[in-house]
Amino acid sequence: MAIEIKYVVVRKGEDKMTFASKKEAEAYDKMLDMAEVFSDWLLNSRMQLDEPQAENLGLYLAEHKDDVQHILRTSKLPEAVGAQAPSAEPESMESDDDTDAGTKKISAVKAA
Q1: Of the candidates 29, 35, 90, 95, which lies 20 to 30 Å from 45 by C-alpha distance?
Q2: Each residue's pLDDT expressed in tens, for the chain with a length of 112 residues
Q3: What CA–CA distance (Å, rounded) separates 31 from 25?
Q4: What does each C-alpha distance from 67 to 36, 71, 76, 112 come to in angstroms?
């Protein structure tokens, strides 16, 4: 018999997502907290949004927080418009492929 440990993120009595690691579960839970704050903030704004719209927009902003932070810092779109930041990648990953004229691709992901 095998024993598996699973981490389940629960919101309002509902299972949202199951993870194999505690770190991933906590990061997802933190993202849901951020989405809830964004949703509440949007509902309290002067925009005419109903609750599902505010929740969807809040979740989108939380899922793309790195892009939002980049836009706020630089007033420019990130280079990969619409692409999600790699969340499961290591903090710094270098490619050994020299297919791009000898340049190395480096991507950085902030720890949650």
Answers
A1: 29
A2: 899 999 999 988 999 999 999 999 999 999 999 999 999 999 999 999 999 999 999 999 999 999 999 999 999 999 865 555 444 433 333 334 444 444 444 444 444 4
A3: 10
A4: 18, 6, 10, 15
Domain ranges within the chain, ordered by starting residue: 7-63
Is 58:44 a contact under the CB 8 Å cutoff? no
Q: Say if residue 38 is exposed, middle or buried (CB neighbours under 10 Å; 0-12, 13-18, 19+).
A: buried
CB contact at 8 A, 84 and 78: no
Three-state DSSP class for residue 53:
helix
- Give the integer Cα–Cα distance in Å for 91 and 1: 36
- What is the gyration radius of the CA atoms in the chain, in angstroms? 18
Token pair, residue 8, equals 């389940």
Is the alpha carbon torsion for 29, 112, 5, 2 positive or negative? positive
